[in-house]
Design brief:
This protein is mainly alpha-helical and 163 residues long. It has helices at residues 2-17, 25-42, 50-85, 92-118.
Length: 163
Amino acid sequence: MAPLARRAAKKLNKRLSKIKAVEDDKAIHKARIAGKKLRYLMEPFDQYSVECKKTIARLKRLQDILGVIHDLNLIRKDISRCSKKEKNHSLAPGFLKLARLANSRRDVFWKRWRQCQKWGQVLYLDSRPAPQSFEGGDTSSGRGRFRGNDSPAGSPWSETRGE
């Protein structure tokens, strides 16, 4: 199981690293799917480990954030397509309002995603020992990444989050 999870985590981190902008819809979608696959691999083991349970919760949160961004990107495309096809110009203000709402909501979730990136890698599933806490270490070497319950309160990964 561990080699499978490591490969899935590596693939997820690779997919996550490809997300550069809020418009990177394909990269966002692929990262979300990679997270889902890893979560499904881990779920049978959640009863055996608190860390596993917390990682699964973190993956669910990641899926939620990326899913909303993806959905709002699709909604924005649909609004644009519909507004171009619409011959009745009296609907234009409605389309504009919908587009603004979609943009605003997408921006909120993009900021959440950027916070997740700021806090470090989503998972720490490689052969090196995981740190016990985050102290702002060198993320390129693996030091300073979160694992399990190491996420500080108020981080995008913590259980309590403000909407």
